Amino acid sequence: MATLKILVVDDEPGIRSGVTRILRNFKVDYPFMDEMYDFEITEAATGEEAIEQIDREQPDIVLLDNKLPGIQGVTVLEDIRNKKYDIFVVMITSYASLELAIKVTHDGAVDFIPKPFTPQELKSSLETITKQIYLKRMARKMKHEGKQIRFQFLSVLSHELKAPLNAVEGYLNMVKERQLGTNLNDYNDLIDRSLKRLHGMRNLILDLLDLTKIESGVPSQRPINTDLVEIARNAIDTMMPFAIQKEVTVNLDAPEKLVLMFDADEIEIIFNNLISNAIKYNHQGGTVDITLQHDDHQTMISVKDTGIGISQEDQERLFKDFVRIKNTQTKNITGSGLGLSIVKKVVELNQGRITVESQPGQGSTFNVWLPAPQAKDGKPLSATSNTTSQS
Amino acid sequence: MKKTILIVDDDMDYLYQLKLKIERFGFEVVTADSQHEGEQVIATFKPDLAIFDLMMENEDSGFVLSYKMKKKYPDVPVILATAVTAETGMSFDLSEESNHQWIKADLFLDKGIRGDQLEKEIKKLLKI
């Protein structure tokens, strides 16, 4: 049995004693938890008193009335946030305007209980919170133990995998029930859409494999003499059908050869993702310019497109797992939302860095800098100079 | 007269399938494929019921739409459709989801719901 400390902050003694009474013998137990939770309750009648008790007792949960005689509930909430306490705050309030709701949500309140509340409402809110506290503690424990289990990643992943499954399942059921009649040709669109969703799902799985490989860490890196230009050309060739379809011209400005000690798979990941994005998010008839430059210290890869561009706000989120910039221009483009986060991880694994410059409506440029690894003889290995261009 | 249901979802396949399904229940269907488009529809048109996807352009698109809907037409029932259920213990963002529990849609539905169940829920909300 584990005990969570709850502080009830309300100026009405009736509410405080009511909460205490309701929760006195209340226990939360979920099948996935390894122990039951019960609650120890303390009370405060004012915000001032609450802050003092929070400093002293460090409760796990605070049930907070907003309307208090002295300082308001939101002020207590701000204080908790400023002190960075790990406390789940539930607002108890008779009337929540949207403004107040947004403000307190922003300040870290996790739930609302309307006043007056039934014992059941209070209990179910506490059930949810207990579950969250449990999961948060488990996550922290697992992280502490070095198990990189990422709840958020897994849950978004399950969402991303479920969406295409739902779509395909829905279409198959339509076929099964002959919803469009008995003429097989009437089902062509629906079959094409199903295949497209399956294709997207396959790409997601391939990206996941890349990610797993990277996240498992450095030991999988196998640096060998790798011709970056050759990899760039191969990547362009792979994307060519797609580029032709969108009438996008792809130019490569690079030396004849650029042989350096890198893991070829990783370099491929960088080129494949950047080039396919540059085509995917381009306008019909656009251009992609790929530049490879190097000196003794570093290699710079630049992929510039004339596509839809990325807003400043979106640029900041761009490299995170499962971030797909959703707007009317991107809604018909499929993607796993993993590509750029994978690229960033690979680049960082090689002690490099990646930046993006973009103007919405005009295009984006992704720049990657990789420090030049030294070849066995101590010199950077490269055969240089003959600049060629291929389109 | 047939009742009209507004569906807003950015997954074009789900939108198409749901539209067919609901038309077969005997309703008119109006669709929008983004929060933005959904807002435009609401501005000029009052449906008898609305079904919103939760995550579209923004993580909380569905919440925003249901808020705007309830503000303009308090009597129109709203269903929020989500692909990730809290029951799995792995909702997409624990803090986000609970953050928003205070917004009251009439019903949360899992996107994988069976047709006959969906029909029952809709008819219950429309009191028919």
Task: Describe this structure as you would to a colleague.
The complex is a heterodimer of chains A (391) and B (128). By secondary structure, chain A is an alpha/beta fold. Chain A has three domains: 143 residues, 3-Layer(aba) Sandwich (Rossmann fold); 65 residues; 169 residues, Histidine kinase-like ATPase, C-terminal domain (Heat Shock Protein 90), CATH 3.30.565. Helix content of chain A is 45%, strand content 21%. Chain A has eleven helices and 14 strands. In chain A, helix 4 links the parallel strand 5 and strand 6. In chain A, helix 7 runs parallel beside helix 11 and helix 8 packs parallel to helix 9. The radius of gyration of chain A is 28 Å and the shape is elongated. Chain A starts with a strand and ends with a strand. With 128 residues, chain B is an alpha/beta fold. Chain B has a single domain, classed as Rossmann fold, CATH 3.40.50.2300. Chain B is built from five helices and five strands, in the order βαβαβαβαβα. Chain B has a five-stranded parallel sheet with strand order 2-1-3-4-5, with helices on both faces. About 12% of the residues of chain B have low confidence.
Radius of gyration of chain B: 14 Å
* CATH classification class of chain B: Alpha Beta
Number of domains of chain B: 1
What is the 3D shape of chain B?
A: globular
Number of strands of chain B: 5
| Shape type of chain A | elongated
Q: Kindly report the greatest chain-chain contact and the residue count on each side.
A: A-B, 38 and 34 residues
